[in-house]
Design a protein that fits this description.
The chain has 18 helices and no strands. The chain is mainly α.
């Protein structure tokens, strides 16, 4: 009886305060609509932080282009920024739609210099009818030719005026290019020792730890797969260049190019020993220190120990 009277009194109170079922649903619907409107307004304001996306979407020419932004309707700086993210193939396709924008010289100049960092033609007055788009096609063709036959590739670059017939210019081109096949490049450098000499001098090993400098060297000039005269030549040239870049360190440690040469060979052998799955009994740090100091007696034990730690933690110097 008491519970029934309590329910009647509670219902009357809710009706008096306007919390009937229909009124409550109406108010709840209104609250949700207001929340959704506030949320959409908030998202639109957040999108206006850098570029007004809402404004960009309104630049569509017609309803048939809905979902497709016309770059010609945007500010030129913004259009060029968008196109600068495309590779050469996509930029050629974009030129079918936006010919003036996609054929802009600055875009193709950026593509050329990001792939081929140095060419002799960059520092010359451009000839009549020159365009960076045409230059990109020639550089791409020359790189493919080089990867098939290095001598023919270099001759192609020279015939187009892209490279000067100079070992220094060829070395700079190789140093700043990453599209050349490393196996073909190794064959070419083995034959052109004058280019190899200039390529070595382009490296700066100042204040670098010896194993790290050797890794950088072999990233640009790949080591041969087998021991031989070419590997000895590479290590000899590296040793002299490393000493030339770090004269103070060499005096402090009492190292000569011959001592660095011995250390480089020790690092290569240690790299093979620690990383090869065919070697079951790995060389210990104590053994490496003993063997290395036996070949180069003036080297401190701590320095040789740091060399071992670097190979053990980071890995092969010529991988």
């Amino acid at each position: 009886m008491g519970q029934g009277l309590w329910r009647v009194a509670r219902n009357q109170q809710l009706q008096h305060q306007g919390y009937s079922g229909q009124g409550y649903l109406t108010r709840e619907r209104g609250r949700r609509i207001a929340t959704n409107n506030a949320s959409s307004t908030s998202h639109r304001k957040q999108a206006q932080g850098g570029i007004d996306i809402y404004h960009l979407l309104k630049t569509r020419k017609s309803k048939e282009q809905e979902g497709f932004i016309n770059l010609e309707m945007l500010p030129p700086e913004l259009s060029f920024t968008i196109l600068s993210y495309l590779n050469a193939t996509d930029l050629c396709l974009a030129s079918c739609v936006w010919q003036d924008l996609a054929n802009d010289e600055l875009l193709w100049q950026g593509l050329c210099k990001s792939t081929w960092g140095h060419c002799s033609i960059y520092n010359k007055n451009p000839p009549l009818g020159f365009s960076f788009r045409k230059l990109y096609m020639q550089l791409d063709e020359g790189s493919l030719t080089f990867n098939a036959n290095p001598d023919e590739g270099v001759n192609y670059f020279m015939s187009k005026g892209i490279l000067d017939d100079s070992p220094k210019e060829i070395a700079k081109f190789i140093f700043c290019t990453r599209t050349l096949n490393w196996k073909k490049l190794r064959i070419y450098l083995d034959e052109r020792r004058d280019v190899l000499d200039d390529l070595v001098t382009l490296h700066n090993f100042r204040n670098q730890f010896l194993p790290n400098a050797l890794r950088e060297f072999f990233r640009h000039i790949h080591a041969p797969e087998e021991r031989g005269e070419y590997l000895e030549t590479l290590i000899t040239k590296f040793s002299h260049r490393f000493c030339a870049c770090n004269p103070d360190l060499m005096r402090e440690l009492g190292l000569s190019p011959d001592a660095v040469y011995v250390l480089c060979y020790s690092l290569i052998l240690l790299s093979i020993d620690l990383t090869s799955p065919h070697v079951k009994n790995k060389m210990s740090k104590r053994e490496f220190i003993r063997n290395t100091r036996r070949a180069a007696q003036n080297i401190s034990e701590d320095f040789v120990g740091h060399l071992y730690d670097n190979i053990y933690l980071i890995g092969h110097v010529a991988a």
